[in-house]
Every structure is written in C-alpha cells, then in structure tokens.
Amino acid sequence: MSKKNILAMLIMATMVLSAFSGCIGEKETPTTTTAPKPSAIVFNSTQLRPPPETEWVTTKLLPQFEKETGIKVTFVPEEYVPFESRLIGEVESGNVKVSVAGGLYGDFSLLMEKEYLTDLTGIDLPNRTFIKTFWDLSFYKGKQVFVPWMQATYILVANKKALEYLPEGADMNALTYDQLIEWAKNIYEATGQKKFGLPAGPKGLLHRFVHGYLYPSYTGKTVANFNTPEAVTMWEKMKELWKYTHPSSPMWDAMGEPLLAEDVWIAWDHTARFKTAIEEKPDDFVVLPSPAGPKGRGFITVIAGLAVPKGAPHIDEAKKLIEYLTRPETQVETTKGVGFFPVVEEAAGELPEGPLKVIAEGVIAQSGASDAIPAMLPIGLGEKAGEFSTIYKETFYSIVIDGEPIEDVLSARWAELKALYEETGAPYPAPG
C-alpha cells in the first residue's frame, strides 16, 4: 500500500473517531444550558422579628416550602428603617440581593413612590380568594406592587349574655353606631348596669378607636375632616354612648380582663388583647365587626404584604414563595403559629374549632364587609408620632369625659394636628 493511501486511511479514521466522540460528548455536555437553581433566596421582612416568631418561621414555616420545592430561603428580619434603606440602596446600585420583601403597607410607601417594586400583576395564585379590601390596596398606579400576606386589627367582642338585648332587627355582624348605642342602652335599662367598655386608660388604645374607627365611619377621613359638621355629629353620638359606658373605662388599658370578669359585656380593643379571654372561655363570647357610621364601616387594618424589589434575582422562585405563604392552609398555620390573621377567605373555614377560629371569623367578616373603609396607621411622623395619638386621645377626654364644648375643642386640636403635618410633611394616613 502506498504512503498516500495509508495517509488517507489515517485521516478517515481520525474523522470517524472524532464524530463518534462528538456523539458521546453531546450526552455529557449539553449544547443548551439552564439557569442554576439558587443556593438560597433572601426573604427580608419587617414582620415576625421577635425571636419566638423568627424561630417559628425558620423551623416550622419555611422548611415545608424548602422540602416541597428544593428552594432554600434565608430569612432576614429587620427593623423598618434599615429594611427601607437596604432595599432602596440595592435597587439604586443595581445589585439586588433580596428576592422577597415582607412588610406593612406603610413600610412600602416610599418604595411604591419611587416605583422600586416589581409589577406582580397576573401572578398565579390559584384556589384562594383574597379579601377585596386588601387586594385593592395592593395596587399602585394600576400595577400590583405587593400581594396581601397577613393582617391584625381591632374588633368588638360581646358576651353572649348581651345578645338578647340587641335592638330589634339588628344584625350583630353588621351593626351601626346608632344600634350599638341602643344596645348598650337596652342593657342598662334592663340591668341597671353600664356594660359597654373602652380601653381609655393611660396605656389603652382609645386613640386608635377615634382616628381609625370613628372618624372614617362618620366623616370618611382620618385627618382631613377632623373639624367638620360631620365630626361634631360624631362627638355628639359618642357623648350619648358614654352614658352607658362602664365608669372604670378611663382606668382600663386593655379589655380582656373586664370581659372575663363580666364587668362589661361588650368591648372594643386590639385582637391580641382579647386573645386570653377568648382562649379561657371560647364559648362565652362572639367576635363582631366594628360598627358602621354614615360613611361606612371604618376600621384600622394592619396589613402586611409580600413584594419583589425591582431587579430582584430569582423572580420565579420568589413567586413560588409568595404562592406558598398565601395558601389557605399556610395562612391557617401562620395564625396558629404567630397570631396574625388570614387575608384569604378560605382560611377561616380551615381553622380548627376554638378561640382562634372565633377571632379569625370576626376579623375576616370586618375586613370583608361591603361597606368597609380601611384606615391605615400614621406614617412619616417619625419622633412626633406620639403627638398624633395624644391629639386624638385628648380630644376624646375633653369632649366626652370632661364635657367641654365640641366646637371649641375641635378648633384647638385641629390647629395642633394641622401644624404637626405641616411641620413633618407627612401624608395623611388613608383614607385621608
């Protein structure tokens, strides 16, 4: 065989071997690549910061998600100021580390204004019905900037002994303030006792009742209509209610104990301050939505949401975590674990019978009411936030307890309130 033929055969053999090894290589080294699964996504939150709550998140809540999806989650609880600074800094630097941000509605306010949150419109969240009030709040300039996550609020609790004195035709789950006054009056006339109570003590939350419940219900606003004819009518009604209010109310900081002792049969307070009473005697009490006034059913909503910072890594994984945290069954576990209440309607039906179910049903009925007017806590006041609370509480004391002229008190306090907002430049809390 000539040298030329040998050389040709060697070249052909080399080509065959190369082709064969190329076929093997296609199995070992794909020509297309997929994005690597993250070692962990960062979940930054202003909520669930206390050590017992953080422990519950890391040992109970997130392990189930990690087991189901294979996605690890690093939970980073943080105070509001560093939380906001971190997210703004990351977005503006283009180096975003946080995939999911959890916070109160007010915690997102500046991020919403700067448009630093990802539009989540169309996110796939099947088999759950979000309370419409909260779903509507999650949109800003036509974009969904967060998904409702958890809620806390203030409610009305009544001993079942009071129910026989309800005004004729009144629906206890849709009371008006006029009916509440008549209810308290009926009890007083039948028993000779003042069985309605408010936490009007030095550390009580009376100011929340005034700015978040009374003012929106009667005037449609929290701040803007502080000194108006509608407000005058409201205070006249409160003076009437006070006639049937337990005289120890100005000494009570919380209403759980007075309810247990049956000093009062009807009381308003924060859900957390009723929890022990309802746990001890769950069959004795009903939890009711707060009453409505001429403008609607004003109530404070402490609503927490889940957002994705603009430019966040691992968007698909972030959406999976949001989907998991808002499932009805996860919402139930959250209520049982840390005491925040559901934002999806189906969750109430999945809670086991007992005190938490009693409270949750009342909370969901209040926030889901057709005439609901959600009111937010004040934001942007900084160190002067206490002045806001003092103005509302002392207005109640001056008018209702001390009997000072309504118009004079409103005029003086409105000047203080207006000056507070002019000095701080803070926005009025919703509804305005």
Explain this structure:
The chain is of the alpha/beta class. It has two domains: 41-152 and 302-361, D-Maltodextrin-Binding Protein, domain 2 (3-Layer(aba) Sandwich); 153-300 and 374-424, D-Maltodextrin-Binding Protein, domain 2 (3-Layer(aba) Sandwich). 47% of the residues lie in helices and 14% in strands. It has 16 helices and eleven strands. Strands 1, 2, 3, 6, 7, 8, 9, 10 and 11 form a nine-stranded mixed sheet that branches. Strands 4-5 form a two-stranded antiparallel sheet. Strand 4 (139-140) and strand 5 form a beta hairpin. Helix 7 crosses helix 8. The model is unreliable at 1-34 (pLDDT under 50).
- Kindly, what is the distance between the CA atoms of the first and last residues, rounded to a whole number of angstroms? 99 Å
Estimate the strand proportion: 5-15%
Total helical segments: 16
The rough form would be described as globular
Summed over residues and divided by their number, the pLDDT gives a mean of: 90
CATH architecture of the largest domain: 3-Layer(aba) Sandwich
Please, what is the CATH homologous superfamily of the largest domain? Periplasmic binding protein-like II
